[in-house]
Design goal:
Number of helices of chain B: 22
Mean pLDDT of chain A: 86
CATH superfamily of chain B: Sodium/glucose cotransporter
Structural class of chain A: mainly alpha
Strand content of chain A: under 5%
Low-confidence stretches of chain A: 74-85
Number of domains of chain B: 1
Distance between the termini of chain B: 36 Å
Shape of chain B: globular
Mean pLDDT of chain B: 88
Number of strands of chain A: 0
Low-confidence stretches of chain B: 515-533
Oligomer: heterodimer
CATH class of chain B: Mainly Alpha
Strand order of the largest sheet of chain B: 1-2-3
Largest sheet of chain A: none
Number of domains of chain A: 1
Order of helices and strands of chain A: HHH
Number of strands of chain B: 3
Structural class of chain B: mainly alpha
Chain lengths: 85, 537
């Protein structure tokens, strides 16, 4: 469990660090697909990477325990009052 | 005239949807403010995305790209594509659970209960409203400006603002959260397809294709910076990665998290969020840069997309795309108005005795009256106040809300956090907002022109406070960096040396049910879920 948490934390940090792509800073070329400057194409790819990271988190680190959360005192919530009314 | 007619039809549809939602409403605050906590998965994604996307996502992003180039995408979009879904994943899901368990409808209600202190809630309420209201006003201004631009000046700015304020009011007044999320389905779909369609249409109209123009920009020493980040300091670029922490702290975003029917609704949202941001921002940034060649010398670059559409798209399509832009304006504005109304009703009116005296029905009536008053006031302020003041306030609001994120994280995940720690963080944020405002005003006269190095604000303090073209910086970093770090540090240090909340409160929020996997047995399952079966919105 702890190893999984460490691996995921490192993964998130690596993706976060990859945002600072200093190696593309002053480069326009190559033009990806013939028209996208490399710095822009990199960050478009980064967005896809972020989506991939989110998919991994949802798959392996989803807070499953929250799926069973119930009103602590159901009578106190307005929703329940309305139902009773 | 055709674009105006198309946009007019769109606005009527929005108002009608809000009115239809009225017929489904019940006279209690949970239904009015949170759609009975029954927003389904796909609607939740479309709605929370609309909540967070403003006119800036389309018009401002392309305008900034016109001025500063492709770096704007990494600066604002791809960083948001990582940080916002992370905050929704870690913070949004917990907020949802707390709302389900204890019936909270606002962040402030949670803070008050979590730290057994009404005052800290009131203080955070005051700071949040002070940061949110300018955002709401600028949305109305943005709507008025867009209608004015789309109509080629036929719809006056004051009238455009009035139309947007009126449609938002009808939508929220009658429909509450239900009307708002229904409208969001339509709005988000429109503005998500906006970018791809705009790129396709403009590309079709350019005989040489995009590559020729981009090579021309790259090959010209005067414009080469637009396709690189050579004018964007690395510290500035990194600082911006902290700004998206603000997203979940904006009251309208947090309140949306309370409205989901199930926690699983968050799954789709966090996975699709980065791609949805890309779908909007990438075409807008690209077209903004391209616009420097197709529409050179614009005095107001924020109108570049409207210029490109006018010149390169058929008029009917320009109208539909204009409706897409208006969608982005109004999607967030309706949530902002609803959030301000929710906070005043729950955190002030109800908290200080209004609910006990007037009941649930009275609270909803108060909320509706407040919506009329606040949008009317916002409209008047939008007419008489320069937009630049609110632009600045909104920029500061992003830093301010980002710096409040440690307070939320501590409340959710750290048992030992205390009201004094939260108080120290909140005062730190408020002090920095005032300081930054002062420094910004002080250095306006010495702000360097684009491409020039920053100037020292106080020579005796060296590089501590510098002024770039648009921002005050602290050793080259944006103020959000010391704000977030200081807020986190104060939360930790002050909490350590002050007494924690009672064991009863800590147990309430951190008992096993909230922190560990709980697998109810088959016999228990029907009972547990029985009380939660609500039809999705």
């Amino acid at each position: 469990m702890k190893i999984k948490a460490v691996v995921l934390t490192v993964l998130i940090l690596v993706v976060y660090v990859l945002h600072q792509d200093f190696w593309n800073w002053n480069k326009a070329e190559p033009l990806v697909f013939g028209f996208l400057p490399v710095g822009l194409a990199y960050h478009a790819g980064y967005s896809i990477l972020a989506a991939g990271l989110m998919a991994v988190l949802v798959k392996v680190a989803w807070p499953k325990h929250l799926e069973n959360v119930q009103p602590r005192n159901p009578e106190s919530t307005q929703d329940q009052k309305e139902k009773q009314g | 005239m055709i674009p105006v007619i198309v946009v007019g039809i769109y606005l009527v549809i929005i108002a009608v949807i809000g009115s239809v939602a009225f017929s489904r409403s019940k006279a209690n605050t949970e239904d009015f403010f949170l759609a009975n906590r029954a927003v389904g998965s796909m609607v939740f994604f479309l709605s929370i995305f609309a909540t967070n996307m403003t006119a800036f996502a389309i018009l401002g992003s392309s305008g900034q790209a016109y001025r500063q180039g492709i770096g704007i995408y990494g600066l604002m979009a791809s960083s948001s594509g990582l940080v916002i879904p992370l905050t929704i994943f870690f913070i949004g899901t917990r907020l949802w659970a707390i709302g389900q368990r204890f019936g909270h409808q606002t962040q402030v209600a949670f803070f008050r209960d979590r730290w057994e202190c009404s005052t800290i809630g009131t203080l955070i309420f005051a700071l949040s409203v002070a940061m949110l209201v300018p955002y709401m006003i600028i949305s109305i201004m943005g709507g008025g400006r867009v209608l004015n631009d789309i109509s080629g000046g036929r719809v006056a700015y004051w009238l455009g603002c009035a139309i947007v304020a009126l449609v938002v009011t009808i939508n929220v007044f009658f429909g509450g959260m239900r009307g708002t999320v229904w409208v969001n389905i339509f709005q988000t779909t429109l503005f998500l397809i906006f970018g791809a369609v705009a790129v396709a249409v403009i590309s079709h109209d350019l005989p040489g294709g995009f590559g020729e123009y981009i090579q021309k920009i790259a090959g010209n020493p005067k414009t080469g910076y637009l396709v690189t980040r050579q004018r964007m300091p690395e510290r500035y670029f990194w600082s911006y990665t902290l700004i998206p922490l603000s997203s979940i702290m904006f009251p309208h975003m947090a309140i949306m998290c309370f409205a989901a029917r199930k926690v699983t609704a968050f799954k789709r949202t966090v996975m699709l969020y980065p791609l949805a941001i890309m779908a909007i921002w990438l075409p807008c940034i690209f077209l903004g840069v391209l616009g420097t060649q197709l529409e050179p010398g614009l005095k107001n670059p924020d109108g570049i997309l409207l210029h490109l559409l006018t010149d390169h798209a058929p008029v009917w399509l320009a109208g539909i795309l204009g409706a897409g832009i208006i969608s982005a304006v109004m999607g967030s504005d309706t949530h902002q108005v609803l959030a301000v109304s929710t906070m005043f009703t729950k955190d002030v009116f109800a908290h200080y005795g209004g609910k006990a005296k007037y009941g649930e029905r009275g609270s909803v009536t108060f909320a509706r009256g407040f919506i009329l008053a606040v949008t009317g006031l916002a409209y008047l302020v939008a007419l008489i106040t320069p937009e630049s003041i609110f632009e600045l306030a909104v920029r500061f609001a992003f830093s301010g809300f980002a710096a409040m994120a440690p307070v939320m994280i501590a409340a959710l995940f750290w048992k030992r956090s205390t009201k004094y720690g939260a108080l120290a963080s909140t005062l730190w944020v408020a002090a920095w907002l005032i300081l930054t405002w002062y420094l910004q005003r002080l250095s306006d006269g010495t702000a360097p022109k684009p491409g020039q190095p920053p100037t020292l604000i106080f020579v005796a303090l060296g590089h501590l406070f510098e002024r770039s073209t648009a921002n005050v910086t602290v050793y080259g970093f944006l103020p959000v960096v010391p704000m977030v770090l200081g807020s986190a540090l104060l939360m930790i240090l002050v909490s350590w040396v002050t007494p924690p909340p009672s064991k009863q409160t800590i147990d309430k929020y951190f008992e096993t049910e909230m922190t560990q996997a709980q697998a109810p047995g088959p016999a228990l399952q029907p009972t547990l879920t029985q009380g939660r079966l609500r039809p999705s919105v």
